[in-house]
Amino acid sequence: MTPTSSFRTRVKICGLTRAEDIDAAVSAGADALGFVMWPGSPRVLDLERLAALSARVPAFVTRVGLFVDQDPAFVRACEAHLDVVQFHGDETPAECGRATRPWVKALRMRGDIDLEAAASDYAGAKGLLLDAYKPGVPGGTGETFDWSRIPASLTKPVILAGGLDASNVGEAIRTVRPFAVDVSGGIEQAKGIKDPDKIHAFVRQVFLAQD
């Protein structure tokens, strides 16, 4: 999990619903953009909107789709407009492995979770996204968790999520040294409506934490 001193933590801006927010995230220097395809979210997109927004993303910025225990046929249809699939529900390793794109597995930090075992179980994942646990909520809790629970020996790249914003992301990076950080609510004016100033402030703090 621990990168070398020259390693740069990547930034994923998630829950994008508007073209202008994509432009703000790209101009700020985001490495990846997240699109929520789960209908239980206030930030959900339909397939048509996903296609339109993903077409706006320039080369070398990764398009990530978020799914929660959804129909594989729907995931497959969305993959035409995505570079990476993020499974945020109770999908088994075999179910995740049906993706035609590289995939990451989101894990909620329950009290009894064994991250080393999860990394072994989800061996095909390109990374593990770690989020706060809140009963009945698959993600986007807006809450942090105890970062010291992440073992330094974890072999999978860690994407750190959960309650991050410009005020705490620097500390998060210095503490965890994650491969990437993921933010949604911490850069919003309202659910699904991003604030360009907050986006730029967040990315700036990521960069400053690595100087």
From TrEMBL:
<dbReference type="InterPro" id="IPR011060">
    <property type="entry name" value="RibuloseP-bd_barrel"/>
</dbReference>
<dbReference type="Pfam" id="PF00697">
    <property type="entry name" value="PRAI"/>
</dbReference>
<feature type="domain" description="N-(5'phosphoribosyl) anthranilate isomerase (PRAI)">
    <location>
        <begin position="11"/>
        <end position="204"/>
    </location>
</feature>
<keyword id="KW-0028">Amino-acid biosynthesis</keyword>
<keyword id="KW-0413">Isomerase</keyword>
<comment type="pathway">
    <text>Amino-acid biosynthesis; L-tryptophan biosynthesis; L-tryptophan from chorismate: step 3/5.</text>
</comment>
<dbReference type="InterPro" id="IPR044643">
    <property type="entry name" value="TrpF_fam"/>
</dbReference>
<dbReference type="InterPro" id="IPR001240">
    <property type="entry name" value="PRAI_dom"/>
</dbReference>
<keyword id="KW-0057">Aromatic amino acid biosynthesis</keyword>
<dbReference type="GO" id="GO:0004640">
    <property type="term" value="F:phosphoribosylanthranilate isomerase activity"/>
</dbReference>
<keyword id="KW-0822">Tryptophan biosynthesis</keyword>
<protein>
    <recommendedName>
        <fullName>N-(5'-phosphoribosyl)anthranilate isomerase</fullName>
        <ecNumber>5.3.1.24</ecNumber>
    </recommendedName>
</protein>
<comment type="similarity">
    <text>Belongs to the TrpF family.</text>
</comment>
<dbReference type="InterPro" id="IPR013785">
    <property type="entry name" value="Aldolase_TIM"/>
</dbReference>
